[in-house]
């Protein structure tokens, strides 16, 4: 798998040199125009072979049993061929550079487009983005300004790629940290995230800021999640179903009969070697160690809920205190230290929002994670308010601090409204509008319903987000966060393949069955040409009808279910 993916990355890197996204804009690019042009057949063969090899290696490697080091080396090998090539599959990096140049000149990219300066490299930016304010947060704008401050477009592009590589390194730390806290196998999560073809092609090759966004977000979620209850018996006795284990008695000590609730007491021998502890009823003891086999911690709703239901009252109370008794089998650290960790986690989530504001939909789920869910009783509500306030306070403090220190103010919070000028069938609301426009044209009506459909979609998005949050208020909030990001992608006026990385990174650290989503990621890799143009642009209207049918099917499935649609 390793060398198959490496070969695919080499092919993609070669294609970036032959037909990537240069500083000048190629007009009227399509599959047929590439094939008719110079080196057209090798360009398309390299692109298809490279993307296919990366997707196949990632797909086939999902079930491998390998070490974390092997995965990290593999990911590095797949990224290496794309480090020193021109931008691949997107022209966004040139827009980043011009936005940074605008900021470096003392203007606010959240308020005016890059044509206001104008940017010295404006001819490299797609026309649709020249008069549009940047939809990114203050942290990213500051980073773009730093990259552009050297006055060289080539240097700025290189710095953006460096940002992407550092972000992938951050993901290599954040993903296993969060996976440990959620009880997910670290190697599986790392493979799904770092070796996904989105990373070498779009995160590194295209130098998108989504990798940095998710590295900060996952790091923040790891802090607010807290430590997971250790598998197996902890240092203190934990009550289990049936009688508790009887500790060994030193040689020479008189036998002490143990009388737990339930079965009769079992005396412990005193003469000779120390007695072997009596195994409790329930899971069989490990033959080699005499300990219970490791199991996932059971969810708990109170400080004593980690103990078994059939345990004696005296042992149950001590067990809950010994392991921390956090909801969901986690240790929720209290006191000033615990509050500080939550504030720090919230600040990292806020920093992620300050890069890409759309991931702000995850913040309400971070509150659920920190509080161990929402319990509608006095203790649960107090815990929710106390711990949620720490997370939200940290996020707001980070956002406010970055907004003030950068001098940008809070205009970035509404700049997303200008991000919908482009039209593509990959966005379901836009596809519905394009399909309706086409039908109207057939009957001689010159209508444009795309803006109206997009407005309705935003209203539906708000309701969907509330429904998802309520559905996951008592547990599995990370899965809810992934679905919230997926809802944003589905209802957004613009949808790009690399947006799927948000949901992928969140699903990877949960136990959700995600084969359907992995197939979606693979399919998305074939939507873009190596220069960044849409591969199926000439077929926009037929594909708009196809996506409209998909949107209708999703709506029908949602209405048929008693609760919010949750893919399994």
UniProtKB/TrEMBL annotation:
Q: Which GO terms describe its molecular function?
A: glycosyltransferase activity
Task: Give the record's keywords alphabetically.
Answer: Glycosyltransferase, Membrane, Transferase, Transmembrane, Transmembrane helix
User: Which parts of the sequence are annotated with region: Disordered?
Assistant: 277-303
Q: Where are the transmembrane segments?
A: 44-61, 70-89, 154-177, 189-205, 336-355, 361-377, 389-415, 452-470, 541-559
Report the locations given in the UniProt record: Membrane
Q: Which GO terms describe its cellular component?
A: membrane
What single Pfam family name could you report for this chain, choosing any that match?
Answer: MptA_B_family
Tell me the InterPro entries matching this sequence.
Answer: MptA/B-like
In what way does this protein cross or attach to the membrane?
A: Multi-pass membrane protein
Instruction: Classify the source by domain of life.
Output: Bacteria
Where does this chain mainly localize? membrane
UniProt family annotation: Belongs to the MptA/B family.
For this entry, the protein name equals Alpha-1,6-mannosyltransferase
């Amino acid at each position: 798998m390793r060398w198959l993916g490496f070969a695919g990355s080499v092919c993609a890197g070669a294609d970036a040199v032959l037909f990537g996204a240069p500083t000048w804009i190629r007009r009227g690019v399509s599959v047929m125009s590439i094939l008719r042009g110079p080196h057209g057949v090798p360009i398309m063969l390299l692109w298809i072979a490279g993307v296919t090899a990366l997707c196949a290696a990632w797909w086939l490697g999902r079930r491998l049993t390998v070490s974390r080091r092997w995965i990290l080396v593999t990911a590095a090998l797949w990224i290496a061929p794309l480090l020193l090539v021109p931008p691949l599959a997107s022209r966004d990096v040139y827009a980043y550079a011009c936005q940074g140049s605008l900021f470096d000149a003392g203007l606010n990219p959240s308020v005016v487009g890059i044509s206001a300066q104008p940017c010295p490299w404006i001819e490299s930016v797609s026309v649709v983005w020249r008069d549009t304010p940047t939809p990114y947060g203050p942290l990213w704008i500051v980073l773009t300004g730093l990259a552009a401050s050297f006055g060289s477009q080539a240097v700025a592009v290189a710095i953006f790629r460096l940002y992407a590589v550092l972000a992938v390194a951050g993901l290599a730390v954040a993903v296993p940290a969060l996976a440990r806290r959620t009880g997910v196998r670290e190697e599986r999560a790392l493979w799904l995230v770092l070796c996904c073809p989105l990373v070498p092609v779009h995160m590194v090759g295209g130098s998108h800021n989504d990798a940095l966004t998710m590295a900060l977000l996952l790091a923040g979620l790891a802090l607010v999640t807290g430590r997971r209850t250790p598998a197996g018996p902890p240092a203190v006795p934990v009550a289990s179903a049936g009688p508790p284990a009887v500790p060994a008695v030193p040689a020479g000590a008189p036998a002490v009969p143990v009388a737990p609730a339930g079965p009769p007491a079992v005396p412990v021998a005193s003469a000779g070697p120390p007695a072997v502890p009596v195994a409790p009823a329930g899971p069989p003891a490990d033959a080699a160690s005499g300990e219970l086999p490791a199991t996932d911690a059971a969810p708990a709703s109170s400080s004593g809920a980690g103990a078994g239901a059939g345990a004696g009252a005296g042992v149950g109370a001590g067990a809950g205190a010994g392991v921390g008794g956090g909801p969901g089998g986690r240790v929720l650290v209290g006191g000033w230290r615990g509050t500080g960790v939550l504030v720090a986690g919230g600040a990292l989530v806020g920093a992620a929002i300050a890069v890409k504001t759309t991931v702000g939909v995850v913040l309400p789920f971070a509150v659920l994670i920190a509080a161990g869910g929402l319990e509608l009783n006095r203790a649960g509500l107090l815990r929710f308010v106390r711990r949620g306030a720490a997370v939200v306070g940290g996020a707001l403090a980070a956002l406010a601090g970055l907004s003030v220190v950068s001098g940008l103010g809070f205009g970035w919070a509404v700049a997303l409204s200008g991000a919908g000028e482009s039209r593509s069938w990959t966005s379901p609301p836009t596809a519905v509008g394009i399909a309706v426009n086409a039908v109207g044209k057939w009957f001689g009506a010159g209508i444009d319903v795309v803006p109206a459909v997009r407005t309705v979609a935003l209203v539906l998005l708000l309701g969907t987000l509330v429904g998802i949050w309520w559905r996951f208020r008592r547990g599995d909030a990370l899965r809810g966060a992934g679905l919230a990001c997926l809802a944003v992608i589905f209802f957004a006026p613009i949808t790009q393949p690399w947006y799927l990385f948000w949901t992928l990174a969140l699903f990877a650290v949960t136990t959700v069955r995600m084969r359907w989503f992995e197939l979606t990621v693979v399919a998305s890799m074939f939507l873009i040409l190596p220069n960044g143009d849409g591969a199926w642009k000439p077929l926009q209207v037929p594909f708009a009808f196809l996506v409209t049918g998909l949107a209708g099917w999703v709506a029908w499935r949602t209405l048929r279910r008693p609760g919010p649609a949750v893919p399994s």
